[in-house]
Amino acid sequence: MQQPDRGSLRAPLDLRDVVLTHTRKPSHHGLSLLPTLPVKPQALADADLIRLRHVPLPEGGKTARDQGRQPEPLTAAREGSRSVHKLILWDIDHTLIETGGVGSEVFKDAFEQVTGRKIDRLADVTGRTEQVIFRETLDLYDIEDPGDYFEKFVQVQAASYRARADEMCQRGRALPGAREALQAFAELPDITQTVLTGNPKPSAIAKLETFGLVHYLDLEIGAYGTDDSIRPNLVPIAQARATTRTGHTYTRETTYIIGDTKSDVEAAHKGGAQIVAVATGDTTVKQLRDAGALQVLSSLREVTELPL
Ligand SMILES: [Mg+2]
Q: Residues in the chain with pLDDT < 70?
């Protein structure tokens, strides 16, 4: 029998017991994502707790891809009543998912459909918003924009992602631990989670749908590459939308970006949020730390305990 890849087994096993602690100290708003269990007994005695238990996968059962379509069952129990409302803003590419190269192919195809120009390269994409990537790619090929190219590109790109969903499922993946982290946060009534991404909204939704991650997130209040081309500007946009949705105010202390690039770190610092960086893209732990991220994980598989 073919062995599942390491990531498909490790994440659910590591996160079978997820403990989220809410300290009672009013001044403590820091989010820390600690790599190991168990938690010290005294820390638990002082904390409000959420315990999450994943129902184990059947022996030789689902692949990571199957899990993308049908999340494993989860039970949750809340202990304690403290409630400081927090907003979590997820980056998408190389934080929650990878497209396995489909993303750049879709970009090139959509670019050609809109501009009539076949291209074999595009501008640097890492951490950048789609408007910037698109306009710099136009410049790269000395193409003049009649004014509506990006608007058309957004629609064509999303349609292409949807048309190639099965292929993206085959070649790409939800990153190890991503689903479990989303599930854990989704169980908390005092946490709202959505996305902050350079992707246009329609493409962001198409990608997350492909990997079965949409129902953990409130995507209507997210901030997207179609809202602004400057990433830090997306933070107050998401905060304002979340406030309209929930009635709570979200500040730098109660807003968290989780992302994989120096641009995510910059967006948090300049836009008004905490940053939890994950080195699952091209940017190393050291580079993320050097950019100013205090919390850096090598993978979302490290999320087994969440003191907020
Ligand atoms: Mg990213």
A: 1-83, 303-308
